[in-house]
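Lab meeting, item 3. Inverse folding demo.
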């Protein structure tokens, strides 16, 4: 009995000590700089869009419900969880039971004609889209844009002439192929693909597991930012062409190099209101998930360089800290606890299956 009491008292002492020393990770250093990661939480495969002075992020949510978290920031460093884009995962009969690793993969968020769009791939069913006028409000029901197995990581692009396109990758676990990127034509509304698509890049030789493409246009070039090499140890690849269907030139623009940031890749290129460019990406840290980093971006000869080329090999490496993109905003982190003092659960709560009425 005495031994048991001693063990209990020791455990209580340890828990009190932990509670006293535990702190929320805060990226904003309060002196005009930030440290990476900007989000020490599992926001896998992040994508970000800027609308005016506001930045909006979403991320993979797999089978967690509600899904597709929506975060807001004024400076790319301090983030607030404001909503979820889907309240249940479809097909509902499939996701009414808990499972792992399926569901919502690698979304893209875009702003077009005064509406927010999110596209994502479900490797078992196809590519979906949801949209809304306000990221704080209700999102429309998902639309199946392209049906098929192995279709993942979609990103839409609306060109100046009004034509719409969709770039995506393939999951080798579901399809008979991977390590390629395909572009499809879409209807202008972005609700349906119009053709079988064209392979615009094959990464089998130099860039295996190329995936997660993001579509942009700058200075007359079409750019596809895409990670390659795998989640844990991969690198960030950039493709460019004057023609949307290629041929595409290629360049590695970010890698681990001499740093301790493994696999720095897959995310969003952004410009800030003050004219600076930035790249948001993830780092896989095993059981802690995929945490979010922020890199400065510079351009030379219409190629981006991300982070800092510490080892002088012509490829950027992640920075541990840097000056903030925008100053003057309060320090903020997503809610990570709950006092249960409301009649509704907070946005930080998710479940492993669709809600069931009982």
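The presenter then showed the designed sequence:
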């Amino acid at each position: 009995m005495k031994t048991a009491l001693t063990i209990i008292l020791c455990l209580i002492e340890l828990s009190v000590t932990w509670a006293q020393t535990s702190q929320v990770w805060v990226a904003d250093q309060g002196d005009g700089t930030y440290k990476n990661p900007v989000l020490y939480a599992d926001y896998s495969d992040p994508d970000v869009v800027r609308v005016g002075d506001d930045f909006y992020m979403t991320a993979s949510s797999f089978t967690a419900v509600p899904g597709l978290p929506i975060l807001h920031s004024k400076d790319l460093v301090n983030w607030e969880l404001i909503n979820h884009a889907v309240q249940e995962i479809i097909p509902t009969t499939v996701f009414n039971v808990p499972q792992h690793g399926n569901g919502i993969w690698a979304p893209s968020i875009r702003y077009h004609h005064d509406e927010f769009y999110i596209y994502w791939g479900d490797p078992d069913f196809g590519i979906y889209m949801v949209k809304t006028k306000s990221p704080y409000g209700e999102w429309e029901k998902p639309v199946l844009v392209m049906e098929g197995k192995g279709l993942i990581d979609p990103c839409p692009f609306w060109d100046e002439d009004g034509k719409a396109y969709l770039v995506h990758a393939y999951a080798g676990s579901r399809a008979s192929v991977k390590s390629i990127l395909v572009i499809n034509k879409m209807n202008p509304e972005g609700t349906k693909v119009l053709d079988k698509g064209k392979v615009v890049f094959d990464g089998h030789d130099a860039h295996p597991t190329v995936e997660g493409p993001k579509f942009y246009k700058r200075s007359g070039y079409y750019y596809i930012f895409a990670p390659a090499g795998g989640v844990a140890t991969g690198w960030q690849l950039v493709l460019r062409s004057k023609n949307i269907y290629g041929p595409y030139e290629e360049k590695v623009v970010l890698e681990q190099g001499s740093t301790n940031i493994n696999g720095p890749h897959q995310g969003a290129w952004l410009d800030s209101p003050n004219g600076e460019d930035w790249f948001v990406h993830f780092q896989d840290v095993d059981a802690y998930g995929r945490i979010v980093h922020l890199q400065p971006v510079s351009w030379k000869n219409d190629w981006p360089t991300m982070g800092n080329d510490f080892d002088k090999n012509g490829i950027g490496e992640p920075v541990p800290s840097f000056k903030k993109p925008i100053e003057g905003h309060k320090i903020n982190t997503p809610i990570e606890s709950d006092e249960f003092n409301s009649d509704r659960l907070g946005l930080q709560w998710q479940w492993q299956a669709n809600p069931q009425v009982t």
